[in-house]
Amino acid sequence: MSFKLTVLGANSALPTSDKFSTAQLLQVAGRSFLLDCAEGTQMQLRKNRVNFESIRGIFITHLHGDHIFGIFGLLSSFNLLGRRNHLSLFGPKGIKSIINNFFISFDVKLNFTFEITEIQTNDCLEIYRDKAVSVSAVALLHRIETYGYIFRESLKDRNIRKEAIIKYSIPLNEIHKIKKGADFIADDGSVINNADLTVQNTKSSTYAFITDTAYNENIIKHIKSVDVLYHEATFLEQFADRAKETFHSTARQAATIAKQAQVGKLLLGHYSARTPQIEKFKAEAIEIFLNTECATDGTTLEF
Amino acid sequence: MSFKLTVLGANSALPTSDKFSTAQLLQVAGRSFLLDCAEGTQMQLRKNRVNFESIRGIFITHLHGDHIFGIFGLLSSFNLLGRRNHLSLFGPKGIKSIINNFFISFDVKLNFTFEITEIQTNDCLEIYRDKAVSVSAVALLHRIETYGYIFRESLKDRNIRKEAIIKYSIPLNEIHKIKKGADFIADDGSVINNADLTVQNTKSSTYAFITDTAYNENIIKHIKSVDVLYHEATFLEQFADRAKETFHSTARQAATIAKQAQVGKLLLGHYSARTPQIEKFKAEAIEIFLNTECATDGTTLEF
Question: pTM for the full model?
Fold first, then answer.
């Protein structure tokens, strides 16, 4: 359990009085990453008692309002609250000019360092890495340039076996290197293989955030075996024509991707207002992929 | 009771998990007018079950985010929901380029007619008139160009006295004109003065929306005797220095304006986060002006 995911909004284009459009927070090792930033995201962050300073990166999938309109208020509040931490923003081409226009129009002068990266890939590209995670952007199939994001926890140190420390008289100052994978050279010059000294730690967590997109098998190889896949399910299969027309997916299509990618769990969201009963999305998906859950505002998963 | 006012948000710059920044709705004769449009306004409108089509005009006081960041989502939702009614937007210089940049950046093509008016006055100017109301903008004293708005219900028809209809044998087709104030010419050519035929209807309602501003006595003559005055009270008097520095008002200053303008009722709002107990704003104001109420999200007044 290294990732904590909080769904801040799971509606599609139209928010309601109590259902927000797309935003999610992924927390790992004391830092947070925001995935999309619909109108009201800052209120949802407060509702979930998120420390604003902990947010290191914001990843915007595409430039439709229901995925980005909350960024203006969020950046303003960061500034008003005296933010000090560096912030990275990622998104498709065009995001720089939107943010720069905003700074000019509202005479915003940030009191923290801020870097915007415009992503450009037709396939999959690593765009961010720190001590805790790496993030790759994967090209999706929507009406405009859109990227999904895949989060992989950085490889953890191996665990050193206590009996090996005693058997080979390993000094304290060698332990850190061995945990990182180094072999040990004993006093007599013999090399003890790392595999004989350590065991692998628990596996690293993985999360894929895939919205908005038409059914797209090209992403499967990139999201193979992730622990949790969030995949948009704007429509039920009965509206498959509408899904195709608007470059969205049905719950059945999302489940088909989950099955082929052999993911651990499927999380559905981005529901269209035309189907208010979200349990119908789950009912459709579990016929294909059993471990499916419907995201709602406030859903949290730890994995 | 011709005006219905609903407070959609009463916080100042920083919204919280359940308190929104500035937005209000004024309803009169089946139409609605939005006063400022902070982030989340569309959700607050839904919470208050407002028909989006009924909104005829949006009046933005100034271009600080906590008064306008909700407009992008609101215009987008109007469009997605197939709005047909014309919409008028008023605000200070700069609002046109903000909205036009938004249309370009997000490739928005409105399916309804939309007109933006940039206000320019150092004093007070009528900017809107329809059958139900007239609206004047009044220059305020803030860090950037800012206008308050004064709503006056259009003069109602006079009530014709039944006994006059009988006495002067007034035909049906004359009654409409007489209600509008015309004299009546009897068959014998004599002129019956309108004042002898009619009585004045109930008085027209008036509302003044004054935010954000430093203490400014220049507005008093324009808001004289309004039924309800909303006046920002960002700070308590103990923070008067901070109020002056940031071009805001204290609760005491708001009450002083209300008293001098001899308004019917004072409504306070735009509270700074540094005083979470809003009853303190009221306690301070009623020492100067008794009929004071504190606005909170959801407050409604009919007058």
Answer: 0.88
